[in-house]
Amino acid sequence: MSVFDEPTEEPDQIRDQLRQLFRYRALIVLGLVLGVLGGGAVFLLGGPTYTATGEVVVHAISTAPFEAGGVSADKQISMGTERQIAQSASVAARAAKALGERTDPAGLQRDLRVSNPPETQTLMFEYGADSADRAARLVNAFVQAYLNYRQDAAKQRIDTTVGKLGAELAPLLEQRKVLDQRIAGESAGAGRAADESERSNLVSQIADLQGRISSLKSLDTTPGDIVRKGDPPAFPSSPGLVVLLVAGAVAGLALGILAAWVRSVLEPRVRSVADVQENLRAPVLGILPRGRGGERVLEVGGAGRGNRAEAYRTIAFRLVHDRRFAGLGSLLIVSPRRNADAVSVAVNLAGAFAEIGNDILLIEANLRTPELAERLPLLPGRGRPVPGGWAEGERFAVDAGVDGRFDLLPGREVPNPARALSSPEFARLLNAPSGPDEHVVVVTGPLLAHADGLAVAKQAAGVVVVCDLNEVRRDDLDRVWELITGAGGHVLGAVLDKGSHGRSLRRFMDGGPTQRKRGRGRTRAAVVPAARPGPAPGGGPVPTGGASVDADSPSLRG
After folding, report:
1. Which of 29, 73, 191, 540 lies deepest, with the highest CB count within 10 Å?
2. How many other C-beta atoms lie within 10 A of the C-beta of residue 60?
């Protein structure tokens, strides 16, 4: 397993997922802030709410003392039905009339809550209002309106039943009167005995009806008892400012985490070393530390002992001893797009190779906008001009400090860059080194911007892809691999650049470094290790340094 491979243990995966979320910590913070502001707005705009409570024990009212089957009438009260009656528009209209309120009864109903505690015949009335006195008045009005409604309904049922029984009783009384007159005028005999028997039956029916009417009129129509009167509450029932702020913070934090997770899932850019290795089908050779910004292009050599210089030395040492590259001579340094500084990587790898003891020729294969000769410390005097095309042109010696020097073949504008990079002269320059320790380092423009890099990739021994961790996209790495392998080239690995120390809103939003441009937009970045001092197998000094590689940190921009 490579030292840059992502760990597969479950704790590492969980840690990586958390790091992915916290890369978008601005969304989490934004959700938290919005939640707190929302809680404060609810408190300020809603105001305090006072809730008064009243309780009523409901009595059963029936037109008969007992129902069929010997079940007591009070066992047949449907508390669900009573609860619906208490919240009905009829009761609300009675309450509004009692208070003299001109408000629509439906408006009064909105703040009323009626509940029935289990296994009881009690209704609990709760009313919320903006003042304690109003809440108490309204809840008492609803309680009394409900009781009055039940009492009136019971009286109406009794009156209706009494009326029906009276209608049945009137003809019976009239019939008895007729029989009494007829019996009084008859003498003893069979006819008189029959009339007296009929009258006896009629009197029994009349007595039964009169008894039922008397029972109904004597029924207790009390609808219920108020066991708790609604008193003005001493404290508001609505959540206080602290509770609303905490609730808003929790809700906002949850929404922020959700937004960060969605943003992480939809993120098109690489999120870890494993993403780079998977999409580029090649290992990560090193991670450049975050730079301070404003450094010169050539950081290796002389006083170049910073973390970035040591990172370049480590990458060069690894390439020299890589079996896929060692002894093959030519190396192409290229970036997918302009947001990665392939030029700085090429220049410093050339300087690091020179320190190790190799003869280095740095070729600027940018034949559209060449600039390298103006940015490097050239030694006095110029090389011998060679007549012919660009590939056979004049070379310059670059001062790499006390540790060495290397040659530079600068680019120059030509009418047809693709033809110049595919010429036999350029091919000989790449594939026919003058010695076993001679290496050719070539740097071109962005590979996805134009096809110049492909003309070099098919001839170079290997390709190193430079990626900016803030900008490189997974689909860009896929395309780079397809283009290079399709052209017959071979990707040795990737160099990852973390950018500069400059901070901005985007860095805060993404949870990682942003670029700080200087001149033509050169990027700088974060921390990488180097090997310990000691003899190198190919001779020359081994690069030194003590920076950390971030190899076991799956998240790159955290």
Report:
1. 540
2. 14
Q: Is the pLDDT of residue 256 over 80?
A: yes
DSSP string computed for 336-369:
SSTTS-HHHHHHHHHHHHHHHT-EEEEEE---SS
Higher pLDDT, 57 or 530: 57
- pLDDT surpasses 50 at 548: no
- pLDDT digit string (tens) for 173-229? 888 888 877 777 766 666 777 877 888 888 888 888 888 888 888 877 888 888 889
**Paired tokens of 34:** 């919005």
Contacting residues for 339 by C-beta, under 8 A, at least 6 apart: 468, 470, 471, 472, 515, 523
Q: How many residues belong to the chain?
A: 558
Q: Which two tokens stand for residue 330?
A: 């030519």
How many Å apart are CA 301 and CA 313, to the nearest integer? 10
Task: For the chain, count helices (H), then strands (E).
Answer: 16, 12
Taking only Cα atoms into account, the Rg of the chain, rounded to an integer number of angstroms, comes to 48
Cα four-point dihedral sign 61, 62, 64, 70? negative
Buried b (16+ CB within 10 A) or exposed e, 89-116: eebbbbbbeebebeeebeebbebbebeb
Instruction: Name, in order, each residue with C-beta under 8 angstroms of 41's C-beta and a sequence gap of 6 or more.
Output: none
What is the residue-wise DSSP string for 120-158?
A: SSEEEEEEEESSHHHHHHHHHHHHHHHHHHHHHHHHHHH
> In sequence order, which residues have a C-beta less than 8 Å from that of residue 163 and are 6 or more positions away?
none
Between strands 330-334 and 462-468, the pairing is parallel
CB atoms near residue 59 (< 10 Å): 19
Q: Could you tell me the CA-to-CA distances from 409 to 17, 91, 297, 338 in Å, in that order?
A: 46, 97, 16, 22
CA distance 160 to 307: 101
DSSP 95-116: HHHHHT--S-HHHHHTTEEEE-
pTM (predicted TM-score): 0.54
The CA distance from 67 to 90, in Å, is 29
What's the burial of 130, exposed, middle or buried (CB within 10 Å: 0-12/13-18/19+)? middle
* Spatial distance between the Cα atoms of 291 and 312, rounded to a whole number of angstroms: 13
